[in-house]
Amino acid sequence: MSVKIFETQEVQDFLRTAAGLTNDGGNPRTKAIVHRIISDLFKAVEDLDITADEYWAGIAYLNQLGARSEAGLLSPGLGFDRFLDMRMDAEDAELGVDNKTPRTIEGPLYVSGAPVEHGFARLDDGSDTDGHLLIMHGTVFGADGKPVPGAQVEVWHCNTKGFYSHFDPTGEQQAFNMRRTIIADAQGRYKFQSIIPKGYGCPPDGPTQALLNQLGRHGNRPAHIHFFISADGHRKLTTQINIDGDPLVYDDFAYATREGLVPPLVERNDSASMQAHGVDAPFA
Ligand code: MBD
Ligand code: FE
């Protein structure tokens, strides 16, 4: 079938009606967005000769995506999250804003309400004994280059099985394991102890992975740690770091790796530095 009806007045009028553009009430912005999206989809059906079977398979797929709560997982997999960041980066570039730490995507696994700690936090509850000890510390700076006392550093990551607390299918993790909010000290410094996470993989039996399979793509992320950095009077930063050396650092299904977000890891074995940096002497 290759009939072309999309450009006809009948179909164009129909699209306007379906999007509510021909009636009062409702939300104009919603109408404009829905009109554009359904128009683009109608056009795709026509241009690609999408069959009824293919169309209904797509509808069934959306239901599966919802049933498994994976819309937020497919989104970065198809590059939408990265695209939104690219747009914000481009806007910043136009305004001459120089982001010292690049932004990158939030992902679907943040949970609000993590325990709040001041200056230092241990993120892991010690139950994941396969983990390699990790200490990370730094200072939050504002756009003016000055430290931001009391800045809020929200940090979250997964365990050595690639599972996040609240989303762990094994049910083995305590609530908020490997999730904390750290309030930076008077010099804007934060520090935490945890374990090095493993990479994340999409649920192998889920709809996101099923689509990625059809695209010939994997659904894995390199090991990473997420951050929200916020403070009064400052724009919130959403970012991550990647664990250097992970084979997928530059092959992330969610496209979140960026230059400047792969800090070097320093292995420390001497007990003096362990004591200086460990949980017993967080600010020594
Ligand atoms: C993750 O842990 C993640 O950070 C993203 C972006 C997508 C899926 C899982
Ligand atoms: Fe993640």
Description:
A five-stranded mixed beta sheet has the order 1-5-4-7-8, with no helix packed on it. It folds into two domains: 9-77, no CATH class; 93-277, Protocatechuate 3,4-Dioxygenase, subunit A (Sandwich). The relative contact order is 0.13. By secondary structure, the protein is of the alpha/beta class. Helices cover 30% and strands 15% of the residues. β7 (224-230) and β8 form a beta hairpin. The chain is built from seven helices and eight strands; from the N terminus they run αααααββββββαββα. α4 (71-77) packs parallel to α6. The model has no long low-confidence stretch (mean pLDDT 95). It has helices at 9-18, 28-47, 52-67, 71-77, 80-95, 207-214, 271-277, and strands spanning 116-118, 120-122, 133-139, 152-156, 179-183, 189-195, 224-230, 237-242. The protein is globular, with a radius of gyration of 23 Å. 3-methylcatechol binds next to α4.
Could you give a short description of this structure?
The chain is α/β, with parallel strands linked by helices and 284 residues long.
| CATH level-4 homologous superfamily of the largest domain | Aromatic compound dioxygenase
Largest sheet: 5 strands, mixed
Query: What Rg do the Cα atoms give?
Result: 23 Å
Distance between the termini: 74 Å
* Structural class based on helices, strands and sheet pairing: alpha/beta
Count of alpha/pi helices: 7
CATH topology of the largest domain: Protocatechuate 3,4-Dioxygenase, subunit A
Poorly predicted tracts of residues: none
CATH architecture group name of the largest domain: Sandwich
Helix percent reads 25-40%
* Dominant shape: globular
Strand order of the largest sheet: 1-5-4-7-8
- The helix/strand order is HHHHHEEEEEEHEEH
